[in-house]
Amino acid sequence: MTPWVQRLLLTNVVVFLFSMVFRALIVDFALVPMAILYRPWTLVTYMFLHGGFGHLFLNMLMLFFFGPRLEERLGSRTFIWFYLACGVGGAILSFATPYAMIVGASGAIFGVVVGFARYWPRENIYIWGVLPIQARVLAIFMVAISLFAGFAGAQDGVAHFAHLGGLVAGWLFLRIWERQRQRRVVKQPARPRKVSIVVDLESLERWKSIPRERLHEINREEVDKLVRKANQSGARSLTTDEREFLDRMSESG
After folding, report:
1. Is 202 a residue whose pLDDT tops 70?
2. Which domain, by its residues, includes 244?
């Protein structure tokens, strides 16, 4: 369990319990798009409220499965900004239903699913623990359902435009973030060869010593794959993202 996923799970559960006792919380902090000028805080607060236990459970289950690996990939600080941006994106697109009262983390969660599918598109997700579906196919399916139900005006009590807004915001956030990271890469003067070799060897030894038993199975497989690549072709054969991933795994260990 990664830091922000754990905090988000706990916060959502605590807020849900409070809202069951103090029902006015839902009225005061739910999102009504047309009232946003008078209640700007609801752009954020709505995503921590839920209409019932089933609503909460499904959202938190998806966060539990998809969130930790994405947080490890992005880093905790970037992840929480990503999560909030997806939720706000869901709120903005909800202006398509201006008078609806909207609650739920679904916009943010749909963004998390898109982020997962972006980095691990061929990863199998098991629906109901049985039916395998690739992450990219799941993301495409979610987009299609949100588009169809939203524009068809489905009267099912589901904020489909909030879902779609979270998906779009998640995709845009990651595109912008990746471009900014590429721009921050500045060519440094070449190091003396001996120094470079020593640094590479030190990094490789640190990565080899990552305690595998503490890692999630998927992350463990990725660490092993990247260490093999570095061992065979040298640490400089790894991309910036791959090196940063191994560094985060070594720090968490």
Report:
1. yes
2. 193-252
Distance, CA of 29 to CA of 6 (rounded, Å): 22
Angle at 148 between CA 142 and CA 152, to 5 degrees: 145
Angle at which helix 76-93 crosses helix 3-21, to 10 degrees, equals: 40
The model's pLDDT over 154-193, given as tens digits with 9 standing for 90+, comes to 555 667 788 889 999 999 999 999 888 777 654 444 444 4
Considering the domain boundaries, does residue 188 fall inside one? no
Number of structural domains, the chain?
A: 2
Same domain, 46 and 25: yes
| CATH label of the domain that carries residue 13 | 1.20.1540.10
- Spatial neighbors of 205 by CB under 8 A, at least 6 apart, are none
Global pTM reads 0.73
Residue 120 near residue 241 (C-beta atoms within 8 A): no
